[in-house]
Write a structure and sequence with these properties.
- This protein is an alpha/beta fold.
- The protein has a single domain, classed as Luciferase-like domain (TIM Barrel), CATH 3.20.20.30.
- The strands form two sheets. It has an eight-stranded parallel barrel, surrounded by seven helices. Strands 6-7 form a two-stranded antiparallel ribbon.
- The longest helix is centred in the C-terminal third of the chain and has 25 residues.
- This is LLM class flavin-dependent oxidoreductase.
- One of its GO terms (molecular function) is oxidoreductase activity, acting on paired donors, with incorporation or reduction of molecular oxygen.
- It holds the Pfam family Bac_luciferase.
Length: 364
């Protein structure tokens, strides 16, 4: 199993300066390769303290220059917020600079504050994502960008520097709703799973995704990569207490950033799943929703963390796990301890796990 580190630059409540958060999380990211992680990732967000990384390719360029072999992944580049031509150029440039180490993750976004800030109609996000993804993925394979769609019209131009190797097999997309999973199958990309729903539901949707992927692409879909917020501690009681504080604190930032207590998604085109998700959250209440989210994440002793990741990976057929170790205002020394203990006690065991295809075959 491949094991990555996610870095998200959170600063809830602005209790520290943004610069302090950046220095701390960049220092943690630079530990990823020495600790033995296979990859380091970041995610694009704008305008709030939820995630202060408006340009994943810029951060990943920094990481490419401060590492030698580790993979560098976008989790994700939100295509509707970009000119797809510029996105293709930046991705190709980063891949050339890093010697082909980029793992491309793309998505469509779900934050109203971000669509409003970019002066975009959130109801057009799915259409924009599909058009932009088709254009970017084709440009990265052919070295030429052109498109004639509803939202994007691009006369043919060459991508320079030319993409020097294929992105097939190393391109993934975040898919929360069942509709998005079907779109990703038709695009021929893998799935990045950010845990927000019961894993049994995720498995059902992945089964449909794999069927469509095989029908459209004539081959099996790549194994998904699962993410998770991690709190690892030798003391199970402390692990629970701190997970409640920090993973629970992270969940609050999710609610605030995406405005799940608002009504804007009720009739928003393309976000029908999120409207149902919001209804379930309101029924559960704040404490119930926090407990539900906590139980999807990875916390406990090293043994508990390993067993939870293994159980989830076997259920959904994942070959990768990306852990987030610094979030919700966690002190830097706690984040370092968290990531180091995980790397020393959990990661070596995860790396012994064979490919998902073999595990699923043996289980059958």
């Amino acid at each position: 199993m491949q094991v990555g580190m996610g870095v998200i630059f959170q600063n809830p409540g602005k209790e520290r300066s943004d610069n302090d958060v950046y220095r701390a999380d960049m220092a943690l990211a630079e530990m990823a390769e020495p600790l033995g992680f296979d990859s380091v990732w970041t995610v694009e967000h704008h305008f709030t303290d939820y995630t202060m990384c408006p340009d994943p390719t810029m951060f990943l360029s920094y990481m490419a220059g401060h590492s030698k072999t580790i993979g560098i992944g976008s989790m994700v580049v939100v295509l509707p917020w970009h000119d797809p031509l510029r996105a293709a150029e930046q991705i190709s440039m980063l891949d050339n600079m890093s010697g082909g180490r980029m793992i491309l993750g793309i998505g469509r976004g779900a934050g109203k504050v971000e669509f409003d800030g970019f002066r975009l109609d959130m109801g057009e996000s799915r259409e924009r994502f599909v058009e932009a993804a088709e254009m970017v993925l084709d440009a990265l394979e052919t070295g030429k960008a052109s498109y004639d769609g509803k939202h994007y019209k691009q006369p043919e131009v060459e991508i320079r520097p030319n993409p020097f190797k294929s992105f097939k097999g190393r391109t993934y997309a975040a898919a929360v709703s069942p509709e998005s999973a079907r779109i990703m199958a038709r695009l021929g990309v893998g799935i990045l799973i950010i845990p927000q729903k019961p894993w049994a539901h995720v498995k059902t949707e992945l089964d449909e995704y794999r069927t469509i992927f095989r029908e459209v692409n004539g081959e099996d879909a790549p194994a998904p990569i699962a993410g998770g917020w991690v709190f690892c501690d030798e003391n199970p009681d402390r692990a629970y207490e701190q997970a409640l504080q920090y993973i629970g604190g992270y969940w609050k930032t999710v609610m605030d950033h995406y405005q799940f207590d608002g009504e804007h998604m009720q009739n928003m085109k393309g976000y029908e799943y999120y409207a149902k998700f919001r209804e379930n959250l309101l029924k559960a209440g704040p404490d119930g929703a926090t407990e539900f989210f906590m139980n999807l994440q990875v916390w406990g002793t090293p043994e508990m963390c390993y067993e939870k990741i293994l159980k989830t990976a076997d259920m959904i057929g994942a070959d990768g796990f990306n852990g987030v170790f610094s979030y919700a205002g966690m002190p830097h020394d706690e984040s370092v301890r968290n990531a180091t203990l995980f790397a020393e006690k959990v990661m070596p065991e995860l790396k012994k796990i064979g490919p998902a295809a073999e595990r699923l075959k043996n289980a059958a």
